[in-house]
Write a structure and sequence with these properties.
This protein has about 220 residues and is mainly alpha-helical. It has ten helices and no strands.
């Protein structure tokens, strides 16, 4: 069964894999909740196990470029339609764009500016909102671009490097069990991401409720 899957994966052109990864990362960077990081981790894991014959540097470059482009488009959208758009999204998708999520992200970006854009790339909730929120708050685009480019490159480089070398080490030291080791590493990364997202969401709700409590 696995041999058949390997053969099928080998037929996927390298350029197509890079485009798919880039599209998924760009979708999330536009401000749409999407498991782009999970997909990136899975693809790099397959590359490390030679199930996909794509230079890992191509995957990293595609992810970094898509992150920068997606965030820049999100910035433009937020700059022009930010307030009304977030109000509409909050009514339609309260679990992802509720007032507490937006208020929390705005406070973080107002306080930390470029630092929030850079490190926000590593946090699920802030990664999704980075571009649109920065645009809505009218952050100067040159400052946003510097933080966006540096954050996108460091994020993509870190993810691809870590997962690739974990997969390579698993293949070298654990042989036929390398898939199991890699799967554990990927699942562990996903679990950590989910935990961070939940804690960030709880922090957003707490930060949103605190001012209301003080007013009452």
């Amino acid at each position: 069964m696995f041999h058949g899957i390997d053969q099928w994966l080998e037929t996927i052109p390298a350029v197509a894999v890079c485009i798919i990864v880039g599209l998924f990362v760009m979708i999330e960077s536009l401000g749409i909740p999407f498991p782009a990081e999970t997909i990136l981790i899975a693809v790099v894991g397959l590359v490390s196990q030679h199930a996909l014959h794509v230079p890992v540097i191509w995957i990293g470059v595609a992810a970094a470029a898509a992150a920068v482009i997606g965030d820049s488009i999100g910035f433009a959208i937020g700059h022009k339609w930010g307030g009304p758009l977030f109000d509409w999204l909050g009514r339609k998708f309260p679990k992802h764009f509720g007032p507490e999520h937006i208020a929390y992200a705005e406070r973080v970006f107002q306080r930390w500016g470029m630092v929030a854009v850079f490190f926000g790339r590593f946090v699920a909730l802030l990664r999704t909102f980075a571009g649109p929120i920065a645009g809505t708050l009218k952050m100067p685009y040159p400052k946003f671009l510097i933080a966006n480019v540096s954050g996108g490159i460091v994020w993509a480089g870190t993810i691809t490097s870590v997962i690739y070398f974990v997969g390579q080490a698993a293949d070298k030291y654990f042989g036929q069990f390398s898939w199991v080791i890699l799967a554990v590493a990927i699942v562990g990364g996903i679990v950590i991401g989910v935990i961070i997202k939940r804690r960030t969401t709880k922090a957003a709700k707490a930060a949103h409720e605190k001012p209301a409590a003080e007013v009452s």
